[in-house]
Structure formats: C-alpha cells, structure tokens
C-alpha cells in the first residue's frame, strides 16, 4: 500500500518516536531559532520544525531511536524516507538497524561531509525476520560555528 506514517516534527508527538523529548543531543527547532543553519525546513519554510544537533551539547553525537517494529514480510518491506542536512566540514549522518536478538547496531546507510549545505532526501528499505528498531545518528567532529546535522520529515511505509 501507499500509506506512509509521517513524522515531520511540527509537534513533539511522533508515533515512531514516542519519547522524542528524551532523545538527548537532538533539539527540535525551526530556521528562525537563531542557532545557525539550516534556516528553513526541507520545504523552505522558516517556521517549520526539524531536528538538529544541539550546538551546546558536550558530546558530539546523538541518536534518534524508533520504537520497536514488527518483522517484515515479503509483501511489506519497511521503507523509510527522510530528509537530512549534513554540514560540509565535519558532519556525519548514519542510519542503523538493531535487531531484537542482537546487542549491536548494524550500520545500513551513512553520509558525511556533503558538498553543499542543503537538504537532501534518501529512502532505505529494511528486511528483517525479527523485531527491530531503527536508529538515526548524527555526529560532529568539531564544534564549528554554523556546522550541524539535521533531519526532517521521516516517513514510514506500512511494512514498518
């Protein structure tokens, strides 16, 4: 089916992230917050909200973890589409998969030091025979002014 469960961060109520306020290191803000880029969400709206790494944080990485998804089947793979912003000097953005039987997170997609400071979009497909969680991670190597990692508009297909 074409039903997508959307998390646009306009409020802190997101089905996929039931404890959005307890995801340390990420801050929910908009382009008018005075915290540097991005100055708008991926649609160019200065007032619309997204998540970015907090420039005040002590550690330079943050993870955004979904709730537990049920195993996928052949007809319904889990597709996750998201918009991301990675600063060109020192940003890295990763998507990981943690299966129920495993203690470690398996990295399934990664991008770092994008050439342009702009929003990009990517879709990942997940196939898992057991329950799993998806982890979105942002990292900054240096705390330079105007450098950040941000995420916006995460949508989940009904296979998730």
UniProtKB/TrEMBL annotation:
CDD domains: MAM. SMART domains: MAM (SM00137). InterPro entries: ConA-like_dom_sf (IPR013320), MAM_dom (IPR000998), MAM_domain-containing (IPR051560). One of its GO terms (cellular component) is membrane. It comes from the Eukaryota. Residues 5-160 form the MAM domain. This is MALR1 protein. It comes from Leiothrix lutea. The lineage of its organism: Eukaryota, Metazoa, Chordata, Craniata, Vertebrata. The gene is Malrd1_4.
